[in-house]
Amino acid sequence: MIFVNVRDLHNRTSEILREAASGKPIFITRYGKP
After folding, report:
1. Do 30 and 6 form a contact (C-beta atoms < 8 A)?
2. pLDDT digits (tens, 9 = 90+) for 1-34
3. Phi first, then psi: what are they for 11, rounded to 5°?
4. What is the span of the domain harbouring residue 26?
C-alpha cells in the first residue's frame, strides 16, 4: 500500500503509474487525507 500526495503524483506520475499497473494499491492524499 502506497500513500502519495498530490505534489508527488504530479512530479512522479510515470513511476507511480508503473507501481499501480504492477498491482500495488495506491492512495492519493490531499492534506494527509485520502
Report:
1. yes
2. 999 999 999 999 999 999 999 999 999 999 989 9
3. -80, -25
4. 1-34
Total count of domains within the chain? 1
User: For position 2, what pLDDT does the model report?
Assistant: 94
Buried b (16+ CB within 10 A) or exposed e, 3-28: ebeeeebeeeeeebeeeeeeeeeeee
In order of 2, 22, 27, 33, the CA distances from 6 in angstroms are: 13, 20, 10, 11
Q: How many residues does the chain have?
A: 34
Long-range contacts of 20-28 (CB under 8 A, 24+ apart): 25/1, 26/2, 27/1, 27/2, 27/3, 28/4
